[in-house]
Design a protein that fits this description.
The structure holds two protein chains of two kinds. By secondary structure, chain A is α/β, with parallel strands linked by helices. Helix content of chain A is 37%, strand content 27%. The longest helix of chain A is centred in the middle third of the chain and has 16 residues. In chain B, α2 packs across α5. The chains are: A alpha/beta, B mainly alpha.
Amino acid sequence: MSHDNAIETEGLTKNFGDLIAVDRVDLNARAGTVLGVLGPNGAGKTTIVRMLATLSEPTAGTARVGGFDIVRDAPHVRTLIGLTGQFAGVDELLTGEENLRFIGRLLGMPTRDAKARARELLAEFNLSDAADKAAKAYSGGMRRRLDLAASLVGRPRILFLDEPTTGLDPRARGELWGLVRSLVADGTTVLLTTQYLEEADQLADDIAVIDHGTVIATGTPTQLKAKIGGQTLRIQPEDPAQLEAVGALVAERFGDLEPLVEAGAVTVGVNDDAIMPVLAADLRERGIGLTEFHLGLSSLDEVFLTLTGHRAEDNETESETDR
Amino acid sequence: MTAATLDTPSGVTGRPGLGATMSQTLSMAWRQMVRIKHNPFELVDLSLSPVMFLLLFVYVFGGQMAGSTTDYLQYVLGGLIAQNAIFLTMYTGTGINADLRKGVYDRFRSLPIARSAPLAGKIFADLFKQVWSVAVMLILGVLMGFELRSLSGALLATVVIVVFALAISWVSVLMGVLADSEEKVQIYSFVVIMPLTFTSSAFVDTSTMPGFLGAWADVNPVTHLADAMRGLLSSGPIAEPLMWTAIWAVVIFAVTAPLAMRAYKKKMV
């Protein structure tokens, strides 16, 4: 493991009045890698990003971004970072080109350089055709790409992406993933928050799972998947009376992973899909007819269930939106 | 674990100097101007209320107030310009409030730029709207029969409006930062601006007001601004109202600008 952490937090805490939005969080993002912060709405992800991006000061604890303290050296931190959030980061009335040129001018680029950088990013992000259209005419995916481009005008070494693909269709999501990968290939360190296990799995080198403001699990995607089962098997017997029998059989076959028996079905995390035909044969042998026998990628909900014993219902309404 | 300290881009310390702050403020103002370019209807929208006020005041009240609508026009145009300038500053506060709530400022605040640049840029750009409104009212006034003292008077009047607006915009900024909704900024501004502008010499001679009100009206900054406008555009003393206008502008700025900046920085938590 490298000792070069681009982002380090120690006991990072944020209170809003009585609410503890972020509670003693320790995170490390190695330089040039992607750290995925995975959690449901309101878990404190946005609050963490806001503190690291110097928009908000921690109540307690410390954090260093690019080696600089986020409170004491906030102006330095801002020279290193880019931020793409869930907020309206682009001006809808301005064209794509104007939005990017504006950021370039703000960063002190001469007009000509700001224009050139804007054109370069538009081309890179496949937005050249829409360069002179107002951002309000952009599709959701185009807008996110423009937003991401805007955070890259100053060539940041460290990039914060706060739920970059929430609300995007799968194609637009895939495009954005590709862009993030190429940034990381160029040496950028990325901290990405997401509600989607698949996204963290696809992009992150390390994942921290957070719930109610605290880190409840960390590891590489492979380690986490081994812990929770990367896929989920759902079995629904034809006859609800056989539910218990199915549950017992699954528990026996799967050993350490606890199956969940509820709502007329049994669900369980799966690490190795070789077990599928064995289980199918077992069920058949015992004459248990099935209406559903489905292997799918684990959702965040199932990850949470495994890690915390409770479902990933939205954690409160407060902390995530703002403040 | 030790953290690697990344090199900051060449020569950048993160804390912008005065030159950089000015340039960032201008960039912020540029953004606002481009918004107007893409949405020119905003200027029409902006002109509706001063045009309406001018027509209604002159043709509805004019005869009763001054014996003839032309005489009243000669009196009231300066006052209406002063009143409108003060009303216009409200939009600076509502705009900042909306941007703050929508999170538009979040990106700005993650950039290595001066904390004051977004606010100052907005105020700066809104001065263009002030100039535009003065021009609209003057042109309409002249079409209605206003006798302009001199062109240089008109230019100087515009400069005075811009400088005064620059100062009192900070009142609006303060409200925009503190209020939790645009509507509240509007209500608050209305409750302050409406009585403030009416208890002045903007529309009537203050000598007809009852004692205490007359006394207030004589020190009201709007009275001085309106008198200065009348002096520059039509007739009457110039130096004294101009001096009081300047004093008021400095006092209001000195009190509200630091308060607004403090509230703005506090909002960042």
